[in-house]
Amino acid sequence: MQITLKGIALLLGGKIVGNDDVIIENIRPIEEAGPGDITFIANAKYLKQLKTTAASAILAAPQTSAAGKNLVLVDDPYAAFGQLLNIFYPVEHSFRGISRDAFIEEGASVSDEATVYPRAYVSRGAKIEKGAVIYPGVFIGSNTTVGENSILYANVTVYSGCIIGKRVILHSGVVVGSDGFGFAAPGKANNKIPQVGFVQIDDDVEIGANSTIDRATLGKTWIGRNVKIDNLVQIAHNVVIGENSVITAQVGISGSTKLGKSVIIGGQTGIVGHITIGDNVMIAAGSGIHKEIEAGQIIAGSPQLPYRQWLKVEACRAKLPEMKKTLEELKRKIEIFQEQINE
Amino acid sequence: MQITLKGIALLLGGKIVGNDDVIIENIRPIEEAGPGDITFIANAKYLKQLKTTAASAILAAPQTSAAGKNLVLVDDPYAAFGQLLNIFYPVEHSFRGISRDAFIEEGASVSDEATVYPRAYVSRGAKIEKGAVIYPGVFIGSNTTVGENSILYANVTVYSGCIIGKRVILHSGVVVGSDGFGFAAPGKANNKIPQVGFVQIDDDVEIGANSTIDRATLGKTWIGRNVKIDNLVQIAHNVVIGENSVITAQVGISGSTKLGKSVIIGGQTGIVGHITIGDNVMIAAGSGIHKEIEAGQIIAGSPQLPYRQWLKVEACRAKLPEMKKTLEELKRKIEIFQEQINE
Amino acid sequence: MQITLKGIALLLGGKIVGNDDVIIENIRPIEEAGPGDITFIANAKYLKQLKTTAASAILAAPQTSAAGKNLVLVDDPYAAFGQLLNIFYPVEHSFRGISRDAFIEEGASVSDEATVYPRAYVSRGAKIEKGAVIYPGVFIGSNTTVGENSILYANVTVYSGCIIGKRVILHSGVVVGSDGFGFAAPGKANNKIPQVGFVQIDDDVEIGANSTIDRATLGKTWIGRNVKIDNLVQIAHNVVIGENSVITAQVGISGSTKLGKSVIIGGQTGIVGHITIGDNVMIAAGSGIHKEIEAGQIIAGSPQLPYRQWLKVEACRAKLPEMKKTLEELKRKIEIFQEQINE
Fold first, then answer.
1. Which pTM value belongs to this model?
2. Which residues of B touch A178 (CB under 8 A)?
3. Residue A122 has pLDDT above 90, yes or no
4. Which of A88, A121, A155 corresponds to the end of one domain?
5. Mean pLDDT of B124-131
6. Are C194 and C285 found together in one domain?
7. Does C338 lie at the interface with A, CB-CB under 8 angstroms?
8. Closest in A155, A270, A317 to B268, CB measured
9. Is B274 part of the annotated catalytic residue set?
10. Are residues A72 and A145 in the same domain?
């Protein structure tokens, strides 16, 4: 693809500083970019590289200046970089239409404008809306709906009765709607509590490879609009995740816990069941959350602590052996004092 | 479905307090239940809601009383709730019989009374017993047996030579019988040790979505009767899990470790290899277990501690910065004493 | 299979002590081995069992002696055990050739000497080289290459544009090339940054069941030669793992982190993004790594500490309640001194 810098600035709504005729052919990271490439600076710590980069142009924040360089100034250079990637590398699928080699049960409803690859499976009562793309090995259970323009990559499974919104992306191996983990008399009879609820995934959600979202016992497990979930994440039955939240890889959220909007959770964090996490909470990677968190808090550690306290606690923790030694020395000295006093 | 409360009490072996003619049409959680619904109280902390619920009937423990309410008294209300769900929402499969679009290798044995969906794959020497249900995308390796009435949901993989018992449920994405992780000279040559054992899964086991159970190096990896395993759990080669144990999501159990009966393990716990965990042990979520645990112990933390000690340790941990400050103050005071004494 | 001990010694390049005519029919662990079996001792702590084992022969390290026993002395008995397993139990696949029931898009290139099972899917531009084995349910994206003699077990997914080397083993449920987790304005707009790079997996890599390797944002995510990755591991976009490294189950490595050669990482460890881990580093299970590690270091804990310091810190941590009590006692005593001095 070839496009002038002027064309790029128009597409991104940016302002050019420098030569707007330069031809851009590719997008590269700043340390690799050369002639014909556009790159970006989203972080002040890379400003140094602005002087030395051989890129033909750089996306940068307003007010950035660099003598002799061609800049496109945009409000959010990283988001603009994403937009450019979309233009240079549009998402492509190797197949179009509804394959005769897909298995579509009688009573399923598939839009003529959907794509269903060979080897996909759509059960009765399911509905695949226009623009949706169903890859090979995908299983859609009965009465499940897949909304417009959603993409289900190879080997995704969605059990029966679930609702997948519009523009949702489910990466390979994702399982939606498997039974929640509920047993009466656990460790003894382990009587299975049937899980007869469903999963609702709202518009613009993306879920990473091999993540699992269990169906509710009754009612629904609910992933809100524009939530982004990374790989190998576990979402238990009846969990609710508020819109725009971001859940990093290998996080586990236990049953019936409710997350507010715009919650950000670092990788491998575990969250106990039946609690509430407020809006805009941030949780550091590797945390163990056992009780509710009010809106806006920043939390870390296992068991959880406020972030600033956690930093201090961990600084002390590394010095525990010294503290113990000091404590023993003081104890000895005090014993000596006591002896001196007693004499 | 419509059934009188009398009918429900008969099915559950419960005792009615109130009107046994009331018609029940659905099951709902206590906070949502209204006329025509039955609900349940399994936990004393919800007893307050007994007065205010609009449900037509409530499953409750013996001795419960509530003026003007229709109660069904049963020994275990939560288990009874599960039984009722089974009656109102029986498990259904959208397909019956052995599909011509399944791929069954020559030399496989599939009961006429089994269900094999289109797109399932059964290898030579495998045996699928009556009542078993094999969903699309399931792969059954050669010489593997699937017992009566077991359900393997979409995209489950069972490698060759494994034994799956009766009434086993494997959720989507489960992998049974992949190679254990064994290499000679790790970090250097990484010579693969072939994993030539198998996996045995006994009757009434349920395994959650995307969990992995590796085959043994020699001999077997063994999941005992009625064990319940949640999603994204890793069971390494030659592990043995005693009957009725409950393993929560994202737990990892390393090679050759043996768990007793009725062990309950909280989510994201990691257990080292080659150790023994006794019967009835309970391990809190997020623990790191590096040495054996005797029967009946309750354990928490990483590294592990007895649960009560762990509670005390963690209470102190949060106060480490104060402790450090106090320690420094005492040190200064003692230095002053010494100076005074020396004067 | 039947083979004389002499034959075995020849195959392994070992030296026999004892009777070289004995017939070996099977391989068993030392505690189970009987007549006709060969076993091995790879660890000095099992030397006692050398005297009591009923095995017909034992693989052991040079200089081992045991009166009346038949030994095969080899440099690395565990590796030799692996070689023997390969001989007694060669890897077998139930199918050979390229199935008509596989779905191979026009423009894919599949070697006549490859095996493609029924129900596998190969996209246009993909290349499957000779000796490769592609199981049912595998999806190979467009322009992806699978090198000679690699095995992709059932339900593996490889997205488009990836490179899989020679003799690579991908276990069931592995996902290679799913989108990295990148969003501008996280928690707010969550603008997707398209992930247009790829994954390169070098020769002799093995990846365990349900592990996920994300494609790079730009450039490549790179798994070096002979790296071994266990089950349920998460490798984020643009990560580089140096050759011969060993990554145990449920580890998560965040974006753009670079591991050196021969790094060994214990299970459930989490590693932050954008850092460098030197050659030959060892990281204990359950660690939380937030900053770079120099070559050769041994590290443990979360947050990370040098291994020896971590041992001391954790020993103190268990004694925190006692330390707190002692501290309070000393404080009281000093207050009493002060009162005495003030009197």
1. 0.97
2. 153, 171-172, 208-209, 231
3. yes
4. A88
5. 98
6. yes
7. no
8. A270
9. no
10. no
Residues of C with Cβ-Cβ distance to A91 under 8 angstroms: 194
Q: Does B136 touch chain A (CB under 8 A)?
A: yes
How many domains are there within chain A?
2
Q: Enter the tokens of residue B322.
A: 């104060």
Among A29, A55, A88, residue at a domain's last position? A88
Neighbouring subunits of A (3+ Cβ pairs under 8 A): B, C
Residue B128 resides in a domain: yes
Catalytic residue among B93, B237, B274, B290: B237
- Please report residues of C whose CB lies closer than 8 A to that of A286: 270, 288, 302
Domain coverage including residue C61 = 3-88
Q: Which amino acid is at C247?
A: I
According to DSSP, residue C98 is labeled B
**DSSP code of B286?**
T
Q: Is residue C13 located within the same domain as residue C61?
A: yes
pLDDT tens readout for residues B213-266:
999 999 999 999 999 999 999 999 999 999 999 999 999 999 999 999 999 999
Q: Which residues of A touch C121 (CB under 8 A)?
A: 117-119, 136-137, 154
| Inside any domain, residue C182 | yes
CA B220 to chain centroid, in Å, comes to 21
Contacts of C320 in chain B (CB under 8 A): 312-313, 316-317, 320
Which CATH number is C128's domain given?
A: 2.160.10.10
The pLDDT value given to residue C255 = 98
Per-residue pLDDT tens over the stretch A322-341: 999 999 999 999 888 888 77
pLDDT tens digits along C99-141: 999 999 999 999 999 999 999 999 999 999 999 999 999 999 9
Task: Check CB contact of A188 with chain B, cutoff 8 Å.
Answer: yes
Asked whether residue A38 falls in the same domain as residue A107, the answer is no
Q: In sequence order, which residues have a C-beta less than 8 Å from that of residue A254 and are 6 or more positions away?
A: A236, A239, A270, A271, A272, A273, A274, B248, B249, B267
The verdict on a CB contact (< 8 Å) between C192 and A206 is yes
Give me the residues of C, 241-260, that contact A with CB < 8 A: 250, 252, 254
DSSP labels, B172-214: TT-EEEEPP--EESTTTT-EE-----EEEE-TT-EE-TT-EEE
- The mean of the pLDDT values for chain B is 96
A267 touches chain C (CB under 8 A): yes
What is the domain-level CATH number for residue C42? Answer: 3.40.1390.10
Dmax (CA) for chain C in angstroms is: 101
Closest residue in chain C to residue B238, using alpha carbons only = C29
Q: Is residue B343 part of a domain?
A: no
Chain A segment 31-90 residues within 8 A of B by beta carbon are none
Residues B183 and B297 in one domain: yes
Q: What residue ranges in C5-44 does DSSP mark as E strands?
A: 15-17, 23-24, 26-27, 37-40
The nearest CA of chain A is from the CA of C205 a distance in Å of 20
Q: Are residues A70 and A193 in the same domain?
A: no
Task: Check A93, A171, A237, A274 and give the catalytic one.
Answer: A237
Residues in contact with C156: Cβ distance below 8 Å, sequence separation at least 6, in sequence order: C135, C137, C138, C139, C170, C171, C172, C173, C174, C175, C176
Picking from B28, B76, B91, B268 by the largest number of A CB atoms within 10 A of its own CB, the best residue to mutate is B268
- Residues 6 or more apart whose CB falls under 8 angstroms from that of B240 comprise B221, B222, B224, B257, B258, B259
Asked if B182 and B57 sit in the same domain, the reply is no
Averaged pLDDT, A289-311: 97
A137 contacts in B (CB within 8 Å)? 137, 155
Alpha helix stretches (DSSP H) within chain B:
5-12, 47-52, 77-88, 307-317, 320-342
Interval B30-65: pLDDT, tens:
989 999 999 999 888 888 899 999 999 999 999 999
Percent of chain B whose pLDDT exceeds 70: 100
Please state, for a pLDDT cut of 70, what percent of chain C lies above it. Answer: 100
Whether the predicted pLDDT of C44 surpasses 90:
no
Phi–psi pair at B279, nearest 5 degrees: -60, 150
Residue C330 lies in a domain: no
Question: Do A222 and A279 belong to one domain?
Answer: yes
Chain C nearest-CA distance from B118, in A, is 11
Structure-token pair, residue C252? 């998560």
